[in-house]
């Protein structure tokens, strides 16, 4: 028995497929990988607050508990207390509950942490860490934008005009 090998016949479709696999020239200084067009870099501080909310995620959190009509009171409390991220709001949940009407405050105390945990797991809220922005010496703080908690030094360790405060 005699086997005869047959040479492959190249078709036009075969040439096109082969030409698409050929490496293309890359000019010097041109990056090989180009980022996708139209996507901005994500902020390291997480998403900004939506229109009408003081703290990012507050509107979704209240909506999860069906309390979205109390967004104004919650925003006023956040502005008064200086809360900038939801972690600070959840830390002071009892104080927020006192600032809201009695029935609403009870709902916030009972379901607040669970509702936020559910929103995190579903991906509707991005967890944000507390951020401290350092000011330079001599800076008045005008024009600086603070996001997150600013922790002050313990008063016991501060020196006051040559005396050690106790």
Attribute tags:
single chain, 166 residues, mainly alpha, two-stranded antiparallel ribbon, 6 helices, 2 strands, 37% helix, elongated
Kindly describe this structure.
This protein has 166 residues and is mainly α. The protein has a domain of 99 residues. 37% of the residues lie in helices and 2% in strands. The chain contains six helices and two strands; from the N terminus they run ααααααββ. It has a two-stranded antiparallel sheet. The radius of gyration is 29 Å and the shape is elongated.
Which helices and strands appear, and what pairs or packs with what?
Blueprint: H1 12-20, H2 58-64, H3 71-81, H4 86-91, H5 93-99, H6 102-122, E1 159-160, E2 163-164
Antiparallel strand pairs: 1-2
Helix pairs in contact: 5-6
Mean pLDDT: 74
Distance between the termini: 106 Å
Supply Rg: 29 Å
Shape: elongated
Oligomeric category: single chain
Q: Given the structure, what is the number of helices?
A: 6
Helix content: 25-40%
The low-pLDDT segments are none
The biggest sheet, with number of strands, parallel, antiparallel or mixed sense and barrel status, is: 2 strands, antiparallel
Structural class: mainly alpha
In what range is the share of β-strand residues? Answer: under 5%
H-E order? HHHHHHEE
Strand adjacency order, main sheet: 1-2
**How many strand units?**
2
């Amino acid at each position: 028995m005699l086997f005869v090998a047959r040479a492959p016949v190249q078709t036009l479709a075969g040439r096109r497929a082969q030409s698409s696999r050929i490496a293309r020239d890359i000019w010097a200084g041109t990056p090989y990988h180009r980022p996708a067009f139209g996507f901005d870099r994500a902020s390291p501080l997480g998403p900004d607050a939506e229109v009408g909310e003081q703290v990012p995620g507050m509107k979704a959190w209240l909506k999860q508990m069906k309390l979205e009509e109390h967004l104004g009171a919650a925003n006023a409390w956040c502005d008064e207390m200086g809360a900038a991220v939801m972690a600070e709001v959840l830390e002071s949940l009892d104080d927020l509950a006192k600032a809201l009407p009695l029935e609403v405050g009870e709902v916030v105390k009972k379901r607040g942490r669970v509702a936020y945990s559910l929103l995190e797991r579903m991906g509707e809220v991005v967890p944000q860490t507390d951020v401290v922005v350092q000011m330079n010496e001599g800076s008045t703080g005008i024009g600086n934008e603070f996001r997150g908690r600013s922790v002050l030094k313990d008063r016991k360790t501060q020196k006051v005009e040559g005396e050690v405060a106790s």
